[in-house]
Amino acid sequence: MGYFTTTQVFLDFPSTVDEKECLKIDKFLLLLDKSGVDSIIEKSIKNNTANGGRPNVNYYKLFATILFAFAFSKATVREIETLCRYDLRYRYLMMNECPSYSTISKFISKVIYDNQKEIFKLITKQIFKEMEIVPGTIYIDGTKIEANANKYKFVWKPLTFHKRLTFNCSEIILKYGLIPNFETPELISSSTVAYAITHLEKMENLDDNKKDCAKKALSHILTKVLEYETKEAICGVNRNSFYKTDIDATAMALKSDYYSGLGTNMHAAYNVQISVSKGVITSYHCSQSRADIHEFIDVLENFYYNFNIYPNNVCADAGYGSFLNYKYMKDRGIVSYVKHQSWEGNASGRYPDSYRINKNNEFQCLGGAIGKEVVLPNRHPKKANSIFIKFDGCNYCSFRLHCKRFMKNVDDNFKIFEVVKEFQILKQESEDNLLSVKGIEMRVNRSIQVEGVFGNIKQNLNYTRFRRRGLTNISSEIMLYLLGVSIRKLFTFYESRKVNNYWKAPSNLVPETFAKPSAKRLSKKSAKQREINIIKHT
Predict the structure, then answer these.
(1) Cβ contact 412:424 at 8 Å
(2) Which H helix or E strand runs over 372?
(3) From CA 333, how far away is CA 518, in angstroms rounded?
(4) Containing domain of residue 74, as a range?
């Protein structure tokens, strides 16, 4: 049964509305019917209101109206309310019902917030089906969008102050022997301080003045520790700040602040990640992380949730190049076109990698020497599964100053690197893929497709700040915006019946290679940097 389309015949469409708009609305409602999103709304309208009975408006029409506004009009709740009153298209969508601001807001909170992933999945799959696209190759990128919070009311994670209190409290506990066999922890807990105060009151052999002073000090410490524990719990393990007016938001430097002082212009913001195929958004992920590297797997997992398959190829910038991400793709049969974090240094020749694995599966340095795996009895690897590789004969190499730029003694005739061999292999595989003709094509298309989506949202729609608060709320808000972008792509396809293939590599294009770095230039740069470091430490 078509919940979105069946009631249209009972309402005469105003003759003043353009026929093209009529067809657009009909196609839009038919898209919703085909997607099966009505099954989600159906769960929310059967006697689930506070006092029983059915809702005061048609939830199917209200959902269609909200999504249509995000796709083709302005999309604040107040503006949607106004459109339902005065715009003939929206009066048609709502069958002349005029929902209030609170009705629209409660519907978004009650239905869309809780079912955002499923709504996005159903409609996105139908869009790809309509456009006859198979999302085999995807492009991933992220951006930071400002939160709806007061930028001056933020709190840093108080670990430094908590450690000071831990030291002071431990001194008091050890001085009076308040806790048997006490060892100073990294961060003292409020329960430990409270136990010390309780034990202090039971000590009869302690002078009253000393007891009062110790109790007063411990009580003050207990108050501050409770405060710090609350702030640390809000921040969690993976972030170091939050804002009082939106505790889910994190202090971040936005792209507009990159040239005006990083760290001085902090804003409350969220990290939004998306994946795109043929210009259509395939998945999204919102987080509190200040870096993109940890969100890569979540984006791909959301892609798998939407399509029940993993993509064949993934292209992303150097912000995602980590061993964990490369291994995740390798284990799932995904071909990596993800730049590693030393890509720009290799491409420009300014900071090239000091070694590579050659065709014989041997470690070879910039000077051509072959490294050997060694075991160091007095030194343990810092990373799991890493080994030590030693290169001899460094004093006769023109790249020695570059390779030894972090060493205290540059006169040694050798250099030892700690290497995760599997990471190096995966990194070079991805690099070789990116330098191929297909890799060049994908690099160009990544900047067009996925960065074009963010450019469209931020520049054309002027959407640079969330209107809602809380991670779940902003996630559903950006979901509606992203769905709107995909729906507009679909209607462009309806008009032309052509899928944009974007940039295609010409037939005469050859694979790219990195130029060999200049030993003279690298040596001068390393020597100059070494002089600066010596001056700083003297």
Answers:
(1) no
(2) strand 372-374
(3) 37
(4) 6-112
**Residue 14 CB burial class (10 angstroms; 0-12, 13-18, ≥19):** exposed
Q: Tell me which DSSP letter residue 156 carries.
A: E
Task: Give the largest CA-CA distance in the chain.
Answer: 96
Residue 304 covered by a domain: no
Contact between 336 and 342 under an 8 Å Cβ cutoff? The reply is no
Strands (E), 22-159: 137-146, 154-156
pTM of the model: 0.90
Q: Is residue 536 part of a domain?
A: no
- Residues 32, 101, single domain; the answer is yes
Q: Is residue 28 part of a domain?
A: yes
Which H helix or E strand runs over 535? Answer: helix 519-536
pLDDT of residue 9: 47
**φ/ψ (deg, to 5) at 295:** -100, -5
On whether both 29 and 88 belong to a single domain, the answer is yes
Cβ-proximal residues to 453 (8 Å cutoff; 6+ apart), any chain: 274, 276, 279, 281, 482, 485
| Lowest-confidence segment of 124-138, 201-215, 437-451, 492-506 by average pLDDT | 201-215
Query: Structural domain tally of the chain?
Result: 2
In a domain, 386, yes or no: no
Asked if 26 and 106 sit in the same domain, the reply is yes
The 10s digit of each residue's pLDDT in 507-527 is: 999 999 998 898 889 888 888
Neighbours of 257 (CB within 10 A): 15
